[in-house]
Amino acid sequence: MNANWRDEYPFKSNFLTVDGGERIHYVDEGSGPTLLMVHGNPTWSFYWRHLISALKDRYRVVALDHIGCGLSDKPSAAEYPYRLIRRIADLQKLIETLDLTDMTMMVHDWGGAIGLGAAGELPERIAKLVIFNSGAFPGGRCPLRIRVCRAPLLGKLGVRGFNLFARAATKMTLVDRSLMTPAAKEGYLHPYGSWGDRVAVHEFVRDIPLSQTHPSYATIRRVDENLARLADRPIRLMWGMQDWCFTPWFLDEYIKRFPNAQVDRFDAAGHYVIEDAQKEILEKLEDFLPG
Question: How far apart are CA 168 and CA 108, in angstroms?
Fold first, then answer.
């Protein structure tokens, strides 16, 4: 591909070394009230590029790449524990090191469990929440196409050998596929060009706690329990209603936990809701984000 993904992501790179010596990449753009953006799998901070560009003239916008994702280090699974509890700890380290306070946190996909997990541990630093298609509690329906990727041999070969998970995500996450331009597709795939580069994509899938015996089940239970510590904050739930992964069931679960949240349902948007509904989301955030 000859697409210029950098044209859509013209941000300065910053790095933070976390416990264990791995380096987290993050962007830190603009000044003003702080916005922290937390991505999922198989995305990276590139997912937030439109919001970063649109908001950095009025806000300080911080968006990280989890270890193994984007431009962060990509240690092997033997070198780094790719578990939810460590993801949350890494994000807490970033928040505390950068001294992010009175912030609006935005989360998507796995960023829901990670971001809200960190927020629940550090509620005094959270002013507002914007929650996109994600989950932060046990249960839900894991689609067959995700379960296949968890298979010990077939899943590993497909995800890490043929990059099927990341490639499929560029086609199956939007309602309007024309929005996945060559530059956007190249940007999403750029960090995951080899077997070694795709370790986190596979480990994220393996870390989905579908049963109480899973190593991350106790962590997701704690994340869920701590949501009560955030329920009094202004919260905006912004949902792509055609998401086949984080279906409206997950939205309903958030509403149970945050009954006072504002809810925006985008009927013509899928999992990558910011790609499908970028303009509408920015318009609604104008009335929600701090002035």
Answer: 18
